[in-house]
Amino acid sequence: MSVNQQAHTGPPYGQPQPGYQGYQQPAYGGQPLPGVPHSQYGAYNGPMPGYQQPVPPQGYFPSLGFPSKGSSVSLNSDTSSLAPNFIGSLRAPPTSGAPPPASGASLPSGHLTYNQFGHGDVQNGIPASAAPMQRPPASQPFLPGSAPTPVSQISTFHQYGPTPASVQQLSNHMAGMTVGSTTAPAPPPAGLGYGPPTSVPPVSGSFSATGSGLYTPYTASQGPSPTSVSQGLPLAQPPFPGQPVSTQRLPTQVPGFAPSPSSTGIGPSSYPPSTGAPRPPTMPGPPLPGQTVAGPPMSQPNHVSSPPPPPSTMSGPHPGPPMSGLHGPPPSAHPPQPGYQMQQNGSFGQVRGPQPNYGGAYPGTPNYGSQPGPPPPPKRLDPDSIPSPIQVIEDDRSNRGSEPFVTGVRGQVPPLVTTNFLVKDQGNASPRYIRCTSYNIPCTSDMAKQSQVPLAAVIKPLATLPPEETLPYLVDHGESGPVRCNRCKAYMCPFMQFIEGGRRFQCCFCSCVTEVPPHYFQHLDHTGKRVDFYDRPELSLGSYEFLATVDYCKNNKFPSPPAFIFMIDVSYNAVKSGLVRLICEELKSLLDYLPREGNMEESAIRVGFVTYNKVLHFYNVKSSLAQPQMMVVSDVADMFVPLLDGFLVNVNESRTVIASLLDQIPEMFADTRETETVFAPVIQAGLEALKAAECAGKLFVFHTSLPIAEAPGKLKNRDDKKLINTDKEKTLFQPQTSFYNNLAKDCVAQGCCVDLFLFPNQYLDVATLGVVTYQTGGSIYKYAYFQLEMDQDRFLNDLRRDVQKEVGFDAVMRVRTSTGIRATDFFGAFYMSNTTDVEMAGLDCNKTITVEFKHDDKLSEDSGALLQCALLYTSCTGQRRLRIHNLSLNCCTQLADLYRNCETDTLINYLAKYAYRGVLSSPVKTVRDALINQCAQILACYRKNCASPSSAGQLILPECMKLLPVYLNCVLKSDVLQPGPEVTTDDRAYIRQLVTSMDVAETNVFFYPRLLPLTKADVDSDSLPAAIRNSEERLSKGDIYLLENGLNIFVWVGVNVQQGLIQNLFGVSSFSQISNTLSTLPVLENPFSKKVRSIVDMLQVQRSRYMKLIIVKQEDKLEMLFKHFLVEDKSLSGGASYVDFLCHMHKEIRQLLS
């Protein structure tokens, strides 16, 4: 056996073993193409022929998100979060220390109702009573391991004056409800009343008086009935492994004292955060005279409150000067009880008004017993009090961006896709190759069904790696091929167990014992590992490649190098727009940059050329010819290739003839008047050419209009917006005819991948034409109303990337799993002829396949779960290879472990693809409702089984899923599921196809775009300005902002931007002179212009497609398009704002729990 590998950059690899030879990584030769990122390659033995992104500025990696800060956090902590997050403003009744209301005035009532997503007439909090507090039952246990909070961290009390006006502005959508974000608690100890997950009753508004110390039995003297619920008390929890501690610390019980219930119905306040964390407001007012203020039992979740509204929105007397974000106590306030705090008994920042029939809030206060005053005005929730995607991204970047992610630990949750981090492969595949929705799988199918968390993996087999990371090693086992399990055919991997002195190995997937081939035998050391463990990539790494033998090839014959065929529409529209001339000019230079490997002087890929309108023109560009020859095929009903020799040629050999052809094509068709085109015969022609050449390849098709000419695959205009929001809307996403499905099937069988560049001026039926691209694993690009000066740069950059990127041809992928789970469903651009093999004529470095798993048996916590992705493909040199990725996951018997190891970005990627496939067979409304219902069930299951009992008015979110509502709302508001009137049917079909192949980083920025304040950029730094949340409220009229979503870049200019900034960026003297037709920013020699252009270039490098630049002036007609991407706001098409959707999700969860 020979192993071609380069020296490893760190443990476990040292110097290569004697006899191992370095294998050069592919690179492009020739001179750099102007304006094209040139690949930066090191030594490598794998198939990386394609486009590589240039080295970005320091601190940035290609295809990644935001720059990271430099603090570290332990990645292997077994401790869990101290306390869950609880989001929402606090409210509480005035206490005896508060000034009395003005004579004759009464406090506003706390009785509020909802509209739209209302909760009905729900009042939170037990009414006041002078009854003494009670101790909880002695049987109530406490969670072990909580340390007392230092006295210095205990928040203080202050007195309340009249309620600030801003607090009264909370939305009536949210009245009676408190939003919280909690981390999943550790498995509850016996006696808490949890029991098996299925036996836990839903959280109710009333709790047993004997079961908890937080509720006092109702008596008639207390006012309203117990349906007015008390908020729950916090649960002390350890931080989750790998998760940033964004929760607040909880003071623990003083030894020897049981917590006493509050007869006033007051729940917990927030507790002081750790140093550096945002500090929420404390409980206003001292304890009532003679009243003991009890601390919360340690079995309750900590609900972290939101900070108060900013001072600019406050009105009325201020309670006191701020102290590090907390209001300190006035001099007259009583000192707090050490270790204890009271909670205000409202929700979302409301101060509890008086109970019915009481003027004052409690006996002893002025106007006690008089009638209540008028209801307060509607209250608006402060958006800063609900989970922020920007904050989560920043926290993860600062906590996990400075340390390498080492893959040697089973079931370890990786950093977010928006965090820049290095990966060290030590036995599990890099998260750049595989990301999972959860890294801790339920042991049983019942538990998985109960949680409703989908178990899925997003796999990107040929992902591009940063220059600092080691590319997969290529292993050659000679004629015998890779070592495999005899039963399940899994490939040798780090999880195989060698036994009997190394003579046999036990499969980690099916437990079958297989003989080790004599040539592969090696002795074991004292730990049971082979002595060559670190010398063999397949034994010590999560990702590697095998050189395939002839047994893995079609017809037991090694493949020929692939071919590229360029097929150019030369109808009237294409010629008139300048597109034909542009393509021909670009191809003259681009053909020098075809993918190649290692030290190859030239690419092995052959090229061919076809032009077409109603008929097809083939070109003989054989090197021996003085001029190219054209052959016309007018019988498009029975397509054939009129020549074999001279159609597919080597670029260098036929360079002169090819250049002559590309000069002549624009001139030959300059005066054409042919407007009709064909499409299916074009694909058939390319397919037949590859069949005749007995090779795989790719068709680059440049097409402009609906194929209405008489030919196979002829289409009609079926665009009908009247079908939107009807049961027939799904037909808009389905192909008109099955002809293209059958054509795509034939293409896959031959390894013929189709990349489609569309330039429509009207309806084109992307849903039908895109089928051949979608099912062959190709890419689709769309340039509506193509204008040379506006779209030239974007098209040429896309074409350059598409031609140069790494592609595997004639690919087949299979995912194997260990006993207990199996792959059941697949999402992506591919074709499947059976239930296990994913077939793709071509698979590039940007494409992903999403795989869903289901249980077929019980799993074991000890052994965990394994998955192995094996991709068989042909490289650009014609070499047949196997790329293997392995991943080990944990298994759990507690739902809390499942919820604390989920990855929301991957979950949203799966849910979006699931929904986008659903629109093919179900009405869009049904798909939307199913999404909302599933997410509500996920959160309701957490609330019921993992969070501690608390008021139904609280929305409690798992720490790992606290962004699920905002991201889900973005999916629901996307153009596919909720189109605005300006969105075309073709656009929806195009977006649906794009998203289905996106990786996790792409869906993250596509659904929640990145918004950067350019005027706050540091011109002396290489870093990006800090991102802000996607809401119009965050925009200032005096600033310039950049928004990017992976497809477009918007530069928004406020009406009050300083004239100097406008001059520096656009080269004009006033706001009115800025042109919104610019496709690039002017090149000006000043620091601000250079900085903004460098930011744009940096973002372009990070994305797989070249983004269109759009200049938007405030109050201009284009601003409506820009606002469509401010996804936290209500959309023009009727999509809910983030705040309203959070209310709606809370309503859905409450209904499920009741």
UniProtKB/TrEMBL annotation:
- In the UniProt record, does the keyword Metal-binding occur? yes
Domain Zinc finger Sec23/Sec24-type: start-end pairs: 482-520
Q: Any idea where the Gelsolin-like domain is?
A: 1024-1095
Residue ranges of every copy of the Sec23/Sec24 beta-sandwich domain listed in the record? 808-891
Q: Name one GO molecular function term.
A: SNARE binding
- Would you kindly state one Gene Ontology biological process term found in this protein's UniProt entry? COPII-coated vesicle cargo loading
Q: Cellular component per GO?
A: COPII vesicle coat; cytosol; endoplasmic reticulum exit site; endoplasmic reticulum membrane
Record Pfam families: Gelsolin, Sec23_BS, Sec23_helical, Sec23_trunk, zf-Sec23_Sec24
Predominantly, its location class is cytoplasm
Question: Per the record, which residues fall in region Disordered?
Answer: 1-63, 85-198, 217-411
Q: Where is the composition biased (Polar residues)?
A: 149-158, 217-231
| InterPro entries found in the cross-reference section | ADF-H/Gelsolin-like_dom_sf, Beta-sandwich_Sec23_24, Gelsolin-like_dom, Gelsolin-like_dom_sf, Sec23/24_helical_dom, Sec23/24_helical_dom_sf, Sec23/24_trunk_dom, SEC23_SEC24_subfamily
Q: Which residues form the Sec23/Sec24 helical domain?
A: 904-1003
Q: Where is the composition biased (Pro residues)?
A: 278-289, 306-338
| Similarity-based family | Belongs to the SEC23/SEC24 family. SEC24 subfamily.
Q: What is this protein called?
A: SEC24 homolog C, COPII coat complex component
Query: Lineage from the top down?
Result: Eukaryota, Metazoa, Chordata, Craniata, Vertebrata
- Which gene is annotated as encoding this protein in its UniProt record? SEC24C
